[in-house]
Amino acid sequence: MLKKILIAIALGTLTIVIAIFGFFVSTTSATEITPEGTARFDSPQATINISNSSQSYQVIWMNAIRAWNRTGVFSFSLSTSPNAQVIAGTNSGMSAKFTGLTNLTTNDQGYISHVTTNLNPKILAKYSYLPTEQTNVAEHELGHAIGLLHSANKASVMYINNRTYGIQNIDIQAVQQLYGSPLGNQAFPYQSYTFQDPFVLKVKGQPEE
């Protein structure tokens, strides 16, 4: 009788452990990495020109560049050439709906050949984006320049309405995956892609969509 009771307790404990483990696996697997686009540079590096920005926005772009460079998965190198692969600046004339806009084009092989990305200083000021939040937006725009799409994860730098988060591990993993596999059939030569990123209101310290 005692033996049967001990066996029953052991089986019950095992069931609980399996249930907990199953919940843990399903929870972690639900955290998907940031979506990748169908275009990328031929290698995880690009030249970038930020010289057309004001001094204060050059600081914002530099902070974003350093943030991506620190990840070790992509490297931006500064250039003053008008032919730099990425031209990053500001544009107060873009739609009042957006904090940033990035346009990239691909070459005959389907690799990214040129990127123009701009922040909207008028809207960033109107909605009181802090310098750290402006940097998050700049990191987001550079994510598009690298080849990342918008993420449904609010804790990703690539979340469409992001002003709160910098680069996260799921964003880093996405870049590793994008540049760690051949372009293959995903290549679309001579294409143009535009990403528009809306502003986010902020109420009592929290973002409001």
From TrEMBL:
SUPFAM superfamilies: Metalloproteases ('zincins'), catalytic domain
Pfam families per record: Peptidase_M10 (PF00413)
Protein name, per record: Peptidase M10
Keyword annotations of the record: Hydrolase, Metal-binding, Protease, Zinc
Domain (Peptidase metallopeptidase) ranges: 35-181
Gene source species: Lentilactobacillus diolivorans
InterPro entries: MetalloPept_cat_dom_sf, Pept_M10_metallopeptidase, Pept_M10A, Peptidase_Metallo
Keyword Transmembrane: no
